[in-house]
Design goal:
Blueprint lengths: L1 H9 L2 H14 E5 L5 E3 L5 H7 L4 E6 L13 E5 L5 E4 L10 H7 L5 E6 L9 E3 L17 E2 L4 E4 L2 E4 L1 E3 L5 E3 L12 E7 L11 E5 L12 E6 L5 E2 L6 E5 L4 E2 L5 E2 L11 E8 L2 E8 L5 E7 L15 E4 L11 E9 L5 H14 L1 E3 L11 E6 L7 E5 L6 E5 L6 H6 L2 E5 L7 E5 L5 E6 L2 E6 L4 H6 L2 E5 L6 E5 L6 E5 L2 E5 L13 H4 L2 E4 L4
Parallel strand pairs: 16-19
Antiparallel strand pairs: 1-2, 3-24, 4-5, 4-6, 6-7, 6-8, 7-12, 9-10, 9-25, 11-24, 12-23, 13-20, 13-24, 14-15, 14-23, 15-17, 17-18, 20-21, 21-22, 26-29, 26-37, 27-28, 29-30, 31-32, 33-34, 35-36
Helix pairs in contact: 2-3, 3-5
The structure holds alpha-L-arabinofuranose (2 copies).
The site of one alpha-L-arabinofuranose has 8 residues, from strand 31 and helix 7.
């Protein structure tokens, strides 16, 4: 197509030569299904973009270095117990995140990700998004920060954490350096969790308005991932990778439907958006293996206001341009470039992403789906007590159970583990003696309830196990309130954050009260 050949003509021969040399130098000779040789230790995504003549001007990751020479901080966490902060770095130059530093700093409490540092040297760090057209739920209308332990993975066999965006969470930088403005060319990619998304507006990463307001068509250019059909969509039921160009999530040249945009939901998903004058593209693939498919490559949308573009150069993560913050997703790494990257450069980046080795992390002690279990408290007061439902009402409670308990009491403290009703990577607990009723929170108190098909009650009944906060058993994070964990307090059971506003959020004994040993079932 003519726009493509126009771009090719503008590509500098020296830059092309540099890319070829860099790839040759970095090569192990491994051929991937993309036909591009995999980059060896050495060339990381931003090295490859630089070699292609389209350098990174922002590079964010909580999992690894995006330059082979990068040997500094990736992100900052803040812990609930005392408000102290700590930078989390890499294990070595060009290496993986030092997740153990986070685990020890956050031991016995919970942490939020306060800063995602820019590795490009331009200072384009992402911090808590301020209020805009929409207010955030945190103090002053800011968005929430991500719970730091909510998205554990392994990368190259090393434990690392993604940035878990629950609705209300958002990061932004409205004063950037080197990000495209106006109709200038840029590219971007992000690695996301294809299984964690929703239809809210708008799980975006990329270029947005510098005043957090909707400044009209063409004032944004970001990757969007999710199953919103409010503006654009493709085949199937979603989710789709689209571009948020403001007042429109575009899956192709048309507003609304574009037949070349497939539903795509790889657990680790590479999403690419790039744009230059009257030309843009969407590409995507499986971050674990294989290449990138092009979902769109052509002129700007056939709707007014998108040519020329009026990009403003702020950076957003997890929100829309006007701070719309009802979306969900998980971000592991992403960059923005200066200049329109070639497909060959992106293919080389995808080969490096494949080689990085993203994989799911199995939390030790997680109860197996289908098993029957009981959940024993670990606080010193209460190590003979178990999580049960009351017989008089449907509330959950903590009560002693022993071999001499009645069979009714034993059954009330027994649960069948099910795949999470609201997120299959987590779990739900079905009552052993009230089949069809599940443990869920309501008004932050736990109870058993029949769960309807609505998304809210299913999320209320979904808990994501992680290592026990006091080093014993597991802690059970609420799927929709990621700073809240199943906690006993005064023999009631609640969804509790560390040091929050409810009585049951009390900091005293929080780590013990939120740690549960999974035992064999009483019934
Ligand atoms: O373009 C979709 C959304 O519309 C943008 O993210 C937001 O700014 C506006 O509400
Ligand atoms: O438990 C907190 C909230 O309370 C639940 O998400 C909702 O179902 C109820 O309003």
């Amino acid at each position: 197509m003519s726009v493509t050949s126009a771009r090719t003509r503008r590509t500098r021969p020296l830059a092309l030569l540099a890319l070829v040399l860099a790839m040759a130098a970095a090569m192990l000779g491994v051929q991937t299904s993309t036909g591009v040789s995999a980059a060896a230790a050495g060339a990381r995504p931003c090295d490859l973009y630089a070699a292609g003549g389209t350098p990174c001007v922002a590079a964010h990751s909580s999992t690894r270095a995006l330059y082979s020479a990068y040997n500094s901080r990736l992100y900052q966490v803040k812990r609930a117990s005392d408000g102290a902060t700590r930078d989390i770095g890499v294990l070595g130059a060009g290496g993986y995140a030092d997740a153990a530093a986070q685990d020890s700093f956050c031991a016995g409490t919970s942490c939020l990700i306060t800063v995602l540092y820019d590795q490009s040297g331009r200072g384009n760090h992402l911090t808590q998004a301020p209020p805009g057209g929409f207010q955030g739920p945190a103090a002053g209308g800011y968005d929430n920060l991500a719970e730091a332990s909510a998205a554990p993975v392994t990368v190259g066999g090393h434990k690392a954490y993604g940035v878990f965006v629950a609705p209300g969470t958002g990061y932004r930088n409205n004063r950037t350096n080197g990000i495209a403005t106006g109709d200038q060319p840029e590219g971007m990619y992000a690695i996301l969790d294809g299984s964690h998304r929703n239809g809210g507006c708008c799980f975006d990463y990329g270029n947005a308005e510098t005043n957090s307001l909707d400044n009209g068509n063409g004032t944004m250019e970001t990757i969007y991932f999710g199953d919103s059909k409010a503006w654009g969509y493709g085949t199937g039921n979603g989710p789709w990778v689209m571009a948020d160009l403001e007042n429109g999530l575009f899956s192709g040249v048309n507003r609304g439907y574009n037949a070349n945009s497939p539903s795509i939901s790889h657990r680790f998903l590479t999403a690419v958006v790039k744009g230059e004058s009257n030309h843009w593209a969407i590409r995507a693939g499986n971050a674990q293996s294989g290449g990138l498919a092009t979902h769109y490559d052509g002129p700007r949308p056939n709707a007014s206001g998108y040519h020329p573009m009026k990009k403003e150069g702020a950076i957003i993560l997890g929100i829309g341009g006007d701070n719309s913050n009802s979306s969900a997703g998980t971000f592991y790494e992403g960059v923005m470039t200066s200049g329109y990257p070639s497909n060959a450069t992106e293919n080389a980046v995808q080969a490096d992403i494949n080689a990085a080795g993203y994989a799911t992390y199995a939390v030790p002690g997680t109860p197996a789906v289908g098993s029957r279990v009981s959940l024993r408290a670990t606080t010193a007061c209460c190590t003979n007590t178990y999580l049960r439902h009351n017989s008089a009402d449907s509330n959950a409670a903590l009560a002693a159970v022993s071999s001499s308990s009645t069979s009714a009491d034993k059954a009330a403290a027994t649960w069948t583990v099910r795949a999470g009703l609201g997120d299959a990577s987590c779990v739900s607990f079905e009552s052993a003696d009230k089949p069809g009723q599940y443990l869920r929170h309501y008004d932050f108190r736990l109870r058993v309830d029949s769960i309807d098909s609505g998304a809210l009650s299913r999320l209320d009944a979904t808990f994501c196990p992680q290592a026990g906060h006091n080093g014993q058993g597991v802690s059970l994070r609420s799927a929709n309130y990621p700073s809240d964990f199943v906690r006993h307090y005064d023999y009631g059971v609640y969804a509790a954050s560390h040091g929050g506003s409810h009585a049951w959020d009390a900091a005293t004994a929080w780590a013990d009260d939120t740690s549960w040993v999974v035992t064999s079932p009483w019934a």
